[in-house]
Design brief:
Structural class: alpha+beta
Number of strands: 5
Number of domains: 1
Protein name: Nitroreductase domain-containing protein
Shape: globular
Subcellular location: Cytoplasm; Nucleus
Largest sheet: 5 strands, antiparallel
Strand content: 15-25%
Order of helices and strands: HEHEHHEHHEHE
Domain Nitroreductase: 16-190
Keywords: Cytoplasm, Nucleus, Oxidoreductase
Family: Belongs to the nitroreductase family.
């Protein structure tokens, strides 16, 4: 068994191994709202970004504001059904139950990227200009993962959703957000309510996904 110098390394890796996706959530919290806010704030401040561009933008929605998001999303889908873009049966049997399950949670973290803020650095480092947008997406993904890990460590379950671009315009209007904030993902969280969730995770052979040289 490999020995780590710092015990915190084992703790961190244990969190990585235990993090899973939970869909059955209750509108309860094992910690204070201030503690949740601190988790999100620390992710905004300390997750790295290329050239320290700090392109991630994050909104924390709790309680009624969280429910407002998923009511808004349901309304958007109802409009898509009415317009013939989504089959009514599919919406009622599949999509609506999922959206109501998200609404039943305690909160949602909205993750955005401000690509417009990259204009100056793209000009300064023109040879890498086409790389900065993907780098920004990688940075916000790290924020999503960090917040997910920390919330699970505190007793929450969570699931990551991607309803962009369907809800982008309505979200921006509802919370008066800058037009340059482009929605990337929604992390839904609450107290897990189903003891049998999640199911056992299956892994592809490590040998086909990892190589080491020089050991």
């Amino acid at each position: 068994m490999s020995a780590f110098k710092n015990p915190a390394t084992s703790t961190l890796l244990d969190l990585v191994k235990s993090r899973r996706t939970y869909y059955g959530l209750k509108a309860e919290s094992p910690i204070s709202d201030d503690a949740i806010q601190r988790i999100v704030e620390d992710s905004v401040l300390h997750v790295p970004s290329s050239f320290n561009t700090q392109t991630s933008r994050v909104v924390l929605l709790l309680k009624d504001e969280h429910k407002k998001l998923w009511d808004l999303t349901i309304k958007v889908f109802e409009g898509l059904v009415a317009a013939g873009h989504v089959p009514k049966e599919q919406f009622e049997s599949s999509t609506l139950p999922k959206l109501n399950a998200f609404k039943a949670g305690y909160g949602t973290v909205l993750f955005f990227v401000d690509f417009e803020s990259l204009a100056a650095i793209k000009e300064k480092f023109a040879i890498y200009a086409d790389k900065f947008d993907p780098f920004a997406t990688e940075s916000v993904a790290m924020s999503q993962y960090l917040v997910w890990l920390a919330l699970e460590a505190e007793g929450f379950g969570a699931n990551l959703q991607h309803y962009t671009p369907l809800i982008d315009e309505e979200v921006a209007k509802a919370w008066d957000l800058p037009a340059s904030w482009k929605l990337d993902a929604q992390l839904v969280f609450g107290v897990p309510q189903n003891p049998s969730e999640p199911a056992e995770k299956q892994f592809q052979p490590l040998e086909s996904r990892f190589k080491v040289f020089g050991k």
